[in-house]
Design a protein that fits this description.
The protein folds into 2 domains: 269 residues, Aldehyde Dehydrogenase, Chain A, domain 1 (3-Layer(aba) Sandwich); 183 residues, Aldehyde Dehydrogenase, Chain A, domain 2 (3-Layer(aba) Sandwich). The chain is built from 15 helices and 23 strands. The strands form 6 sheets. Strands 15-16-17-14-13-19-20 form a 7-stranded mixed sheet, sandwiched between helices. Helix 1 runs parallel beside helix 7, helix 3 crosses helix 4 and helix 9 packs across helix 10. The chain is globular. The relative contact order is 0.13. The structure holds nicotinamide-adenine-dinucleotide (NAD). Nicotinamide-adenine-dinucleotide binds next to helix 7 and helix 8.
Length: 501
Amino acid sequence: MTETVESRPSAELVGAGDQPQLYLGGQWVDPHSTETLEVFSPATGERVGSVPLADDTDVNTAVEIARTVFTSGVWRDRTPADRAAVLNRAADLINERMGDISALVSAEMGATPTDVATLQGLPATGVLQGYAAAATDFPWEELRTGMFGETLVTREAIGVVGAIIAWNVPLFLLANKFGPALAAGCSIVLKPAPETPLNANLLAQIFTEAGVPEGVISVVPGGVTAGQTLVDHPDVDKITFTGSTAAGRAIAARCGDALKRCSLELGGKSAAIVLDDVDLESNIFMLVFSAGLINAGQACVAQTRVLVPRSRHDEIVSAMVETAKTFVPGLPTAEGTMLGPLITAKQRDKVEGYVAKGKEEGATPALEGGRPDGLESGFYVTPTIFTGVTNDMTIAREEIFGPVISVIAYDTVDEAIEIANDSDYGLAGSIWTSDVERGVEIAKQVRTGTLGINWYAIDPASPFGGFKNSGIGRENGREGLESYLEHKSILMPMGYMTPQA
Ligand code: NAD
């Protein structure tokens, strides 16, 4: 029996509590596994709930369901307009229930419900609508006239998709996997991050309610083992992964071995280039926010290397420090909270290790963060802003994934571009200037996937993804949809003319 969100027992936090079953193919089923995955709030340490920890048999069952339904054609043979309508309905339902969804995501990963709604919910519904629009306008079939006459070029669903995601923006990441896979006509097995599995079940039910047929979507909560089983399954045609560069490299190697299609959204160490003509007062909050404090610094697109002209260095650093001090840490449910916890004690230790490393290598903290008083039950660290950073220091080269910003001084714009490009990563970036055209010219010279002028955001209808170690492939809009498709060329007999519609 398929349960809808409304028919589940009402609880204070919808989707929380102990979930004894797995959501496979749009139905609640008993797991084969006898182990559970416990979910705790990173803000308070309180238990939020549990789900079954999917074992190999459970993952295999999910893939079998996905394969059977893909072969049946029940979803892939629907018209693209029908599939688009289901995605738009899912976006509407998510919007209607944003209160419940953001409360659950907040309990699992620690951001305030308002931040979840704006930084994850808005882009999630945006990408669903973007994929719906892309599917509606897409040239699914095209007749080309080539050297032998006519060839019919078709685009077809890639098949069964295995999706593996991180915990930092789980609502947005789920939408960016379900959206393109469903728009293309694929079936999909999602392995959420072990830290945030509850919202994945809640959202999968919403997609079922929006009209995704039985069998098309499954959720297999688990960690690395479940992920590897999914990657290695011969009936999975494509892996789409969002997570760290290290895990992405391991997954890509396994996919390479099996010649499996694979797209990767990985880490970043992006640069914000502040130009000498920046209007500091208007832009300082957004600069500090997108540089390092967004989502407590746990953002792949964080621009944690802030490149500032030496002529305005002190003034910019002092404005950054004053702004960072306004990011008040607190419980996600407390009024006025600007900074949530880090996801785990391990992540907090790692961030503190980078702060120590920065000092050891000669950087100077203009603001030094630490564990705030009164929040000892959570994994909180307040912001650090380093000055005197050179681009060869560890803090300038490695992704920290916490509220730590490195300010690097430059003398010429060419030098700033060189520093921005001197990175193993290339995911995001920004230019801060009063001359937008000048900003665009500089943006064109930075080897990175997305940039903002005087702000940063992800446009749901434009390609998003990384250069270099930040990934392979693009998500969002038409480019995102294309990576879930195979192209086929059907050559017509020589001299044959297809009747015009
Ligand atoms: P992670 O790589 O440790 O884990 C991500 C997911 O992959 C989890 O579900 C995990 O269980 C699974 N996993 C890990 N190793 C695996 C393996 N060998 N085989 C199969 N599955 C495996 O990353 P994380 O710490 O959870 O997330 C933070 C990272 O994600 C950061 O590097 C961040 O930049 C990146 N990220 C990137 C984007 C993007 O769009 N580019 C978005 C969000 C997060």
